[in-house]
């Protein structure tokens, strides 16, 4: 039964003679309705596109397989015995799964870093295991050696129809530059591998080598070279490499630039600088559909990201820059674009320890960027909160399957950095975002980004490595 509220205010407009107030109210009401209808039509339009994409995916058996959730059940080992004196002096906090991950003597070590017996070897007849990715296992090149391309990225060369994987060549001993310094390996150079299928990789050698004798050189072996990325400039015909350059104390905080006539090098190192006069650490570059390239880097003590276009020759930054994700403390950016929307995966800032990834989206690469939540699906809660014990580095589109990508990440091994592993997993765009955004009235128009955990997976049957 409805009860009339005698205190309820009437909804009629009280206006003076001439009706100015009611005319104004009606006009503004109509404007509000038109705005809401426009936003609704945009949402319906994008939902329609998303629905078509999702429908196409769901009817493909390989996509149904990749979207299946795999769970992991990790049993924590019993606590180690401590002497009564030690226990009395300092009560021990409960051991976490991240502690076990970082402990080279942990009983769980083989789960995070399987031994050489399980290595992925494309040159052996793997039978039913052929072309399967096994995240976290040792991955061998065609010479039978572990691939050394950490913090790397992929370039597809249109002329040779070949994929090139560039990354940090860390095949040296791990040490600490000083007592409180982070684990590190001397610069050896940038490794390059080539492939036609994104699974079988041939070692093309070190395409940018360290400087062995000149201590003032950016590439002197005791300095830092991280996250190299290469793009091709269609106008100049040059392959351009950008990378993070630093000293052993991480105070230089710069980017470095190198160039080559060929994807397999050698690359000529040009210079380093602080882009836009700001410090730069974790970084990546992104080449848009119109040929404009952008630098994205962590800055201001990693509290924010900066993004700005490169010059036409890709050899420098322009004077345009925007600050994004301010105060969010994100690093390890990996960008990609889908149906006109820019997406980015980032990690938190916890050194070599894994942490939670976040997905972000924007209608313009220059921002504003909005956070959509954790993209990780499957495993278990700790797998999702640690990005499957890995850190983002790059996202590769899968030709012929719109909305499907390979998420590339590194599982760092701070006890022996040369034995860090690769975690490649399927990334699919589609479905509603996880959390409301700060604008658009809280209703995001972008699709969800999902990274699915699999112990073993392969690309959809019939995919073509040729773009």
Automatic annotation (TrEMBL):
| Family designation | Belongs to the glycosyl hydrolase 43 family.
What is this protein called in UniProt? Beta-glucanase
Q: Which Gene3D superfamilies match?
A: Glycosyl hydrolase domain, family 43
List GO BP terms, alphabetically.
carbohydrate metabolic process
Keyword annotations for this protein?
A: Glycosidase, Hydrolase, Membrane, Transmembrane, Transmembrane helix
Family annotation (InterPro entries): Glyco_hydro_43, Glyco_hydro_beta-prop_sf
**Superkingdom classification of source:** Eukaryota
């Amino acid at each position: 039964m409805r009860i009339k509220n005698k205190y309820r205010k009437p909804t009629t407009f009280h206006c003076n003679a001439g009706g100015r107030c009611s005319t104004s109210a009606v006009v503004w009401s109509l404007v509000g309705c038109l705005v809401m209808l426009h936003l609704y039509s945009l949402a319906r339009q994008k939902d329609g596109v998303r629905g078509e994409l999702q429908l196409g995916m769901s009817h493909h058996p390989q996509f149904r397989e990749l979207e299946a959730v795999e769970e992991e059940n990790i049993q924590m080992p019993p606590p180690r015995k401590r002497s009564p004196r030690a226990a009395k002096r300092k009560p021990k906090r409960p051991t976490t799964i991240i502690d076990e991950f970082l402990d080279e003597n942990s009983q769980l070590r083989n789960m995070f870093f399987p031994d050489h017996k399980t290595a992925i070897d494309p040159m052996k007849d793997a039978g039913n295991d052929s072309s399967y990715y096994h995240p976290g296992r040792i991955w061998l090149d065609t010479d039978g050696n572990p691939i050394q391309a950490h913090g790397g990225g992929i370039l597809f060369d249109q002329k040779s129809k070949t994929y090139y994987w560039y990354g940090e060549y860390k095949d040296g001993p791990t040490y600490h530059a000083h007592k409180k310094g982070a684990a590190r390996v001397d610069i050896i150079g940038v490794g390059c591998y080539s492939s036609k299928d994104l699974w079988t990789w041939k070692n093309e050698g070190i395409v940018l080598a360290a400087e062995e004798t000149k201590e003032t050189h950016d590439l002197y072996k005791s300095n830092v070279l991280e996250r190299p990325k290469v793009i091709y400039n269609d106008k100049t015909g040059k392959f351009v490499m950008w990378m993070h350059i630093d000293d052993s104390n991480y105070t230089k905080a710069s980017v470095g630039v190198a160039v080559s006539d060929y994807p397999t090098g050698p690359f000529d190192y040009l210079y380093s600088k602080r882009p836009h006069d700001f410090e730069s650490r974790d970084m990546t570059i992104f080449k848009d559909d119109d040929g404009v390239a952008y630098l994205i880097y962590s800055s201001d003590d990693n509290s924010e990201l900066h993004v700005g276009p490169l010059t036409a020759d890709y050899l420098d930054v322009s004077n345009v820059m925007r600050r994004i994700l301010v105060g969010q403390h994100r690093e390890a950016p990996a960008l990609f674009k889908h149906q006109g929307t820019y997406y980015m995966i980032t990690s938190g800032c916890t050194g070599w320890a894994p942490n939670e990834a976040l997905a972000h989206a924007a209608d313009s690469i220059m921002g504003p960027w909005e956070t959509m939540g954790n993209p990780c699906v499957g495993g278990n809660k700790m797998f999702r909160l640690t990005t499957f014990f890995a850190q983002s580095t790059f996202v590769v589109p899968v030709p012929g399957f719109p909305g499907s990508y390979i998420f590339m990440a590194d599982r760092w091994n701070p006890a022996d950095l040369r034995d860090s592993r690769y975690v490649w997993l399927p990334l699919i765009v589609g479905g509603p975002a996880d959390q409301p955004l700060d604008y658009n009235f809280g209703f995001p128009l972008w699709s969800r980004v999902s990274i699915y955990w699999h112990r073993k997976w392969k690309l959809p049957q019939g995919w073509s490595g040729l773009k």
